[in-house]
Amino acid sequence: MAFTKIDFNKKNILITGGAGFIGSNLAFYFQDNYPGCNVFVFDTFRSGEVFPNGNLKSFGHYKNLIGFKGEIICGNINNSDDLKLLEDTKFDFIFHQAAISDTRVYDQEAVMKTNINSFYWFLDKSKRDNANLIYASSAATYGSLSSPQSVGIENPENPYGYSKYAMDQIASKFLIQNPDVKIIGLRFFNVYGPREFFKDKTSSMVIQLAHQILKGNAPRLFEDSDQIYRDFIYIEDVIQANIKACNSAKSGVYNVGTGKPRSFQEIADILQKELSTDYGTEYFVNPYKGYQMHTQADISLSKKYLDFEPKFSLEEGIKAYIPYIKEMYRESRE
């Protein structure tokens, strides 16, 4: 199957949630590699409001966009007047990252309104503009199903996971009615890397453990963390998946992981090696019942139809990430 590289120069590109983790990395990817393209970031930015669980309602942060030279529109995907700000521009590619992405938000109404209702608008916009729509689905659609997790076998166990599952079903029906539109859902597994710092408590365990170590403390892990596995994927591989989705051989939903799960203990050990420390590990009882002990993305379809091939091992990803981790640690201490 032949895949040709797309020239994004002179293309109009919309990134919702563009001040967030994945969205801001996408924005800079296009700016750095296709200076002739027109990138529009649409983000509500953070207000300081929090959910009942204490986590921020919005992770968008202006610091993720320092150096960005494209268009910035502050807007909420729940607000029809804000969405009208996008109507006069014809987009070639839409990357829909904006969502309530906190798996521990149990306000079903808020999650469904934000994640599902707005999705219909972006589907219609992609049809009107004849734009490729690449949206963030999630590995949370699988719940605690046994590995490997494969598209078509889902069991969401929280409102966020269900909302993404529903989005996948809505997209599938839309494609039946509009077969000429290209729509790709990407189910991200455990993503880590630069520009996630402002996700605060929901940032990856990689940066959270690293900052514990930089404070001079032993990393804190659940008991038996050598037996808890996740499919950790570095942000640069996630960006690769988004870009390749623009030229996919087939619309649909695809897993974005490495297919090579690693244990929580390995994360802590690799970090200590890279940070030249030997603090050991502090263990505590896992407070969560029914905790998922193993995730592993089945990426066979992603390889076949997206030409997706993860490049970064966990060791390589963490090594590349260390300078940003240290920079954010310094900023947080100032």
Description:
By secondary structure, this protein is α/β, with parallel strands linked by helices. It has a domain at 12-191 and 233-257 and 295-311: NAD(P)-binding Rossmann-like Domain (Rossmann fold, 3-Layer(aba) Sandwich). It has helices at 21-33, 80-84, 108-129, 159-177, 205-214, 235-245, 264-274, 300-306, 314-333, and strands at 12-16, 38-43, 71-74, 93-96, 132-138, 183-188, 190-192, 220-222, 229-230, 232-234, 252-256, 262-263, 282-284.
Task: Quickly name the level 1 CATH class of the domain at 12-191 and 233-257 and 295-311.
Answer: Alpha Beta
Count, helices: 9
Low-pLDDT regions:
none
**What are the secondary-structure elements, in order, as H or E?**
EHEEHEHEHEEHEEEHEEHEHH
N→C terminal distance: 52 Å
In short:
With 334 residues, the protein is an alpha/beta fold.
Give the topology.
Layout: E1 12-16, H1 21-33, E2 38-43, E3 71-74, H2 80-84, E4 93-96, H3 108-129, E5 132-138, H4 159-177, E6 183-188, E7 190-192, H5 205-214, E8 220-222, E9 229-230, E10 232-234, H6 235-245, E11 252-256, E12 262-263, H7 264-274, E13 282-284, H8 300-306, H9 314-333
Parallel strand pairs: 1-2, 1-4, 2-3, 4-5, 5-6, 6-11, 7-10, 8-13
Antiparallel strand pairs: 9-12
Helix pairs in contact: 1-6, 3-4, 5-7, 5-9, 7-9
